[in-house]
Write a structure and sequence with these properties.
About 45% of the residues lie in helices and about 25% in strands. The chain is built from seven helices and eight strands. Helix 2 packs antiparallel against helix 3.
């Protein structure tokens, strides 16, 4: 029989295991939250696999048609059933960011701002599938700013494509750059030149918008985006 070299256990979890045995409330709390996060991640993966089954979830119709309302409906149903776990994951990802200051004049100048709530809420399904602030931020950025760059700033499709490519390749510095009451702002700073700011409100309960069935009420609440801004250093 071959001897297998065992990998050392991570230091902090090992310490927590010892402290739990002696009744450490903090470690017990962190342990429960880790288990909850793992359970939420597993449920999200399972839900996304099921969503690909068109017989179970008839989202894609004849030809190349696809039902956006059906996607939102499925996401709303899943969120209503698992809102607490999803919120836990999103909160932990926000709490894991460093704190910093938001961009401001005269050092920076605001290039554009997007505040169309209907459009922002339509992208809320991404928070259900990827309850992590960085993933959610990138999804919002990719969904919103190509339209802003084209319609408000007059960039060509080639220029917009180049920007989208750059923003997906480059890794920004992340920070919480504003927090007051139930509002939080998250900044993604690209090398000190460009800063994108996502501002969100925490709504509890949250009414997930559905055109056909009115709305689905999520009692646990959700972080809802209310503006997205682009700032550039002068």
């Amino acid at each position: 029989m071959r001897n297998r070299t065992s990998k050392p256990l991570p230091v902090l979890p090992t310490i927590c295991l010892l402290l739990v045995a002696f009744g450490s409330a903090q470690c017990q709390k962190e342990g429960k939250e880790t288990v909850a996060e793992d359970r939420a991640a597993a449920q999200i993966r399972q839900f996304r696999r099921e969503l690909a089954d068109n017989e179970r979830h008839p989202i894609r119709g004849k030809g190349l048609s696809i039902d956006m309302e059906a996607i939102a409906r499925e996401a709303a149903t899943f969120l209503k059933q698992n809102g607490g776990l999803i919120l836990l994951q999103m909160n932990r990802s926000i709490e894991g960011l460093e704190s910093g200051k938001p961009p401001a004049e005269p050092t920076f100048k605001r290039v554009a701002v997007f505040k169309e709530m209907d459009t922002l809420k339509a992208i809320m399904a991404s928070a259900v599938f990827r309850p992590d602030i960085k993933s959610f931020f990138r999804t919002m950025l990719a969904a919103v700013f190509p339209t802003v760059m084209r319609n408000e700033l007059g960039l060509t499709m080639m220029q917009v494509g180049a920007w989208v490519t750059f923003l997906s390749y480059a890794e920004p510095d992340w920070r919480v750059c504003g927090k007051e009451g139930t509002t939080v702002a998250v900044c993604a700073e690209y090398g000190g030149l460009d800063i994108f700011v996502l501002a969100m409100n925490f709504e509890k309960p949250f009414e997930f918008p559905l055109h056909e069935q009115g709305a689905t009420r999520v009692e646990d609440g959700l972080w809802v985006p209310h503006s997205f801004a682009w700032w550039r250093r002068q």
